[in-house]
Design goal:
Elements (H helix, E strand, L loop, with lengths): L1 E5 L2 E5 L3 H46 L8 E2 L6 E2 L2 H32 L2 H15 L3 H20 L10 H25 L3 H9 L4 H12 L1 H16 L3 H7 L16 H9 L8 H35 L1
Antiparallel strand pairs: 1-2, 3-4
Helix pairs in contact: 1-11, 2-5, 2-7, 2-8, 3-5, 4-5, 4-9, 5-8, 5-9, 6-7, 8-11, 9-10, 10-11
């Protein structure tokens, strides 16, 4: 709003009703986004404030016991060696990534550079529906199909039982395939068409265009898909608890029952541990460890994404 002189008179200018509505809408949208951002920060701070004081006190109480190979904080006498939980988590996540990365990336490349428009229109929603399957359903599939019909019959090391980290890793890999395929496909499809056409004009084949031009150009998005899938697998609770079991065994054989970090939280959180006891407080300790590990991987991943995005630009 301002004043303009017309002759000897000053005319007061004001926005039209349409412009006023647009300005008000923009103002509401700006404050709404600011509120959402502030709420995200507050929730994160609240999680840290609720986890870390108890986790630090528990860590001080446990001391060097945490570097051990026996984890039984809910029993008497309690044991706080966290290495079995780490090995269980590492095995499950590693197997899941070995299953999901090649399948998910192959699906993403196929959808972005090989599939016809009609085929893509059918397959892409199916992938997204697969991502929405409840994890308890996948857990039942692993418990009653994967473990008894495949792991117990064909795993050659040891004597596989009803629970196994191998089955949990395989089913978790199925869970994160749609995440990798969908996010990576969006990144590869966003590569400008001109880059593909220039490569074809130079005599490149479709495979060379997809693997050497499009994939490299969309590498930052692919890395983001892998980080998202890793975080999803790392924090998966239901499948790990149902398929890998609740026995924190320190072993190098993925055919054995194991327990992951997140599965312990699910197992202990519904138990009868006395509130305020060391056994109860270990839930906060494991939660803080999960938070820190996920945070570190996200920071490293974001730096990798920024590096490749700058190289592309």
């Amino acid at each position: 709003m301002g004043e303009v002189k017309v002759g000897h008179k000053s005319v007061l200018l004001s926005p039209s009703p349409h412009l006023s509505r647009r300005l008000n809408t923009q103002r509401v949208a700006r404050y709404t986004m600011l509120l959402a951002t502030t709420m995200s920060v507050i929730v994160t701070v609240g999680i840290v404030a609720s986890l870390f004081p108890t986790a630090v006190r528990t860590m001080i109480t446990i001391g060097t016991q945490i570097i051990g190979i026996s984890w039984a904080p809910l029993f008497e006498p309690p044991e706080y060696g966290i290495l079995p939980l780490f090995t269980g988590t590492i095995f499950i996540v590693a197997i899941a990534m070995l299953v999901a990365v090649p399948v998910g990336l192959a699906a993403a490349i196929f959808l972005s550079d090989y599939a016809t428009f009609n085929l893509r229109r059918v397959v892409k929603p199916i992938l997204e529906i697969l991502a929405g399957i409840p994890t308890v359903v996948l857990g039942l599939f692993g418990l009653y199909v994967v473990n008894p019909l495949y792991v117990e019959k064909y795993w050659p090391i040891g004597e596989p039982l009803a629970y196994s980290a191998l089955g949990a890793g395989f089913v978790t890999g199925i869970l994160i395939v749609p995440i990798i395929a969908s996010v990576a496909d969006d990144a590869l499809s966003a590569v400008p068409r001109a880059m593909r056409e220039a490569a074809y004009a130079l005599g490149a084949t479709r495979r060379e265009v997809a693997s050497k031009v499009v994939f490299n150009a969309g590498l930052s998005g692919v890395v983001a898909a892998l980080i998202l899938a890793f975080a999803r697998a790392f924090g998966e609770t239901t499948i790990a608890l149902m398929v890998a079991g609740s026995y924190p065994k320190f072993t190098a054989n993925p055919g054995d029952p194991m327990m992951s970090l997140s599965a312990f939280i699910g197992f202990a959180g519904i138990g009868d541990a006395e509130v305020g006891s060391n056994a109860y407080n270990t839930i906060f300790l494991i939660g803080a460890i999960l938070f820190l590990i996920t945070l570190i991987f996200n920071i490293v991943g974001n730096r990798i994404i920024a590096k490749y995005r700058e190289a592309y630009e």
